Amino acid sequence: MRPADLAREHGISTQAVRNYEQDGFLPPAARTPSGYRVYTETHAAALRAFLALVPAYGHATAGGIMHAVNEDDLTRALTLIDRGHEQLLRDRETLNTVRKAIGPLTTGPVGEPAATGWSIGELAHRLGVTAATVRAWERAGILVPSRNRATGYRVFRAADVRDAELAHLLRRGGYPLAHIATVVGQVRTAGGTESLVQALETWQGRLTARGLAMLDAAARLSAYLASRP
User: Fold this and answer.
1) Adjacent-strand bridge partners of 118
2) How far apart are CA 32 and CA 119, in angstroms?
3) What whole-number distance in Å separates Cα of residue 71 and Cα of residue 46?
């Protein structure tokens, strides 16, 4: 096969195919005496696998998986895949947590996470983010924690934790901080949850699409592994 043969199947340029080979996403191609690349069905299977992995795991992780496979490090490739599934599961759990939090918004306050509230470090640890990220959310108006009068430290109550959970989910969904501040502000004042519901439905669709992409990527990668010498 020529580069054009591989490119035509996916509607990409022949230069893109060459670039993918140069980047290590495809195995090295043999050359004719005149220097032209010669691809095989194995290369075609590798290209199908890589292009299927991108929407499932992102470009960087997809490249890492292909690098590992082409270097015969199947353990590393499978570890990257496992981490992707783990992240998808965490996103689903966060989404479910946020949906459960919608109910009490207009029916009464939520119980405190602790008798004295949480520190910024404890909240950051719960969400798996840095304290700097939490402070950035505060500067954007997403979080409005109270302060301990004696120490001046931030104190995050149940409502603050709820707002942080919403911010974390929406940020992973690609929403800008200004939009998140608007949505969380609506929730905080119980002025309506329409924006929140719409955002959750959109993110649910993205999670579903990503899960289906992972299934397709698994099949393509399995076919590539079977085609390798």
Assistant:
1) 156
2) 65
3) 13
DSSP 16-82: HHHHHHHTTSSPPPEE-TTS-EE--HHHHHHHHHHHHHHHHH-HHHHHHHHHHHHTT-HHHHHHHHH
Strand-pair partners of 30? 38
The Cα 195–Cα 192 span in angstroms is 8
What residue type is 124 in one-letter code? A
Q: Sign of torsion, CA 106 108 109 110?
A: negative
What is the identity of the amino acid at 53? L
User: What are the pLDDT digits (tens) for 172-220?
Assistant: 777 889 888 887 887 776 444 566 677 778 889 999 999 999 999 999 9
- For tokens 């109910």, name the residue: 103
Q: What kind of fold does domain 3-84+212-227 have according to CATH?
A: Multidrug-efflux Transporter Regulator; Chain: A; Domain 2 (1.10.1660)
Task: Please give the CATH topology (third level) of the domain spanning 87-208.
Answer: Multidrug-efflux Transporter Regulator; Chain: A; Domain 2 (1.10.1660)
* 0.85 surpassed by pTM: no
Indicate the residue type of 64. G
